[in-house]
TrEMBL record:
Substrate binds at residues 13, 70, 80-81, 151, 183, 201-202, 211-212. Belongs to the diaminopimelate epimerase family. The active site is at 79, 79 (proton donor), 210 (proton acceptor). The keyword Isomerase applies. SUPFAM superfamilies: Diaminopimelate epimerase-like. This is Diaminopimelate epimerase. It catalyses: (2S,6S)-2,6-diaminopimelate = meso-2,6-diaminopimelate. The record marks 153, 201 as: Could be important to modulate the pK values of the two catalytic cysteine residues.
Length: 273
């Protein structure tokens, strides 16, 4: 059985998409890690399995469920950039009828709008402030705001230029506060309604963008300014997205691009654990 794949990205956060409507693929952590490996696989920050909600027994108002996996094979609740790419694929392939529809995810249902030109808006739902903690980079402490966007984040607004931070290795963080791990964002305010951000993602490493991370960054910046409503652009190494917050509820808008489609060799797939 030939296994179809597509490659896509949202602000250079890149994904392998696996159309699997009936949930037949045995998508083991080893296979995910092999697909995402940039030398022995296709290379990506994560895998998006395109599967019907009913096929996974998921309770969702959406026909399609974004089964997201990190590059190391681990599951995550939500992926904002992935959801834009996933939505773009569904409209391009005719699997979604209109430009606006609901998608299932482990963090619940999300409404998406695919706009002419390929930009996609995701109604992300609540971005909740859950406390304060510290990220440690090269033995320096950066205090941060913990934000739950369905998945966990710690956002540190820093005085240094984020471009100068050494994110080659995972920053240290409080494992008691974040027992499931955490995505770590480092942010420079660029003036009113504009942020610059770098991110070290749980289960991946440094990526060129993280949609949930940009939502967390804007929620944290607004929280530090004493509000839960406002709009901001976020510049990440892979481009720019816009986040709007209204009373703690976020929408994320940014580009989504499909790059290629092809077939995996059965022998290769079968040889992965
Ligand atoms: N890149 C994603 C986030 C993917 C999940 C994250 N690494 C986690 O483990 O929570 C995004 O665009 O939101």
């Amino acid at each position: 059985m030939a296994i179809e794949f597509l490659k896509g990205h949202g602000t250079q956060n890149d994904f392998v998409l696996l159309p699997d409507p009936d949930g037949r693929l045995d998508l083991t952590p080893g296979r995910v890690a092999a697909l995402c490996d940039r030398r022995r696989g296709l290379g990506a920050d994560g895998v998006l399995r395109v599967v019907r909600s009913t096929a996974l027994g998921q309770e969702s108002a959406g026909e399609w469920f974004m089964d997201y996996r990190n590059a190391d094979g681990s599951l995550a609740e939500m992926c904002g950039n992935g959801m834009r790419v996933f939505a773009r694929y569904l409209t391009e392939s005719g699997l979604a009828a209109g430009p606006e529809f609901v998608l299932g995810s482990r963090a619940g249902d999300k409404r998406v709008i695919v706009r002419p030109g390929g930009s996609v808006t995701v109604h992300m739902g609540p971005a909740s402030i859950t406390g304060a903690s510290v990220a440690i980079v090269d033995d320096r402490d950066f205090s941060g705001v913990a934000v739950d966007v369905g998945n966990p984040h710690l956002v540190s607004v820093v005085d240094d230029d984020v471009a100068e931070l050494n994110l080659c290795e995972e920053p240290r963080y409080d494992k008691d506060f974040f027992p499931e791990g955490v995505n770590l964002e480092f942010v420079n305010p660029l003036g009113a309604g504009a942020l610059r951000m770098r991110v070290y993602e749980r289960g991946v490493g440094e990526t060129r963008s993280c949609g949930t991370g940009t939502v967390a960054a804007v929620a944290a910046a607004l929280h530090l300014a004493g509000t839960d409503s406002g709009e901001s652009t976020v510049d990440i190494p892979g481009g720019r997205v816009t986040v709007s917050m209204e009373r703690g509820e976020a929408t994320l808008t940014g580009p989504a691009e499909l790059v290629a489609r092809g077939e995996l060799y059965d022998e290769w797939w079968d040889a992965q654990a």
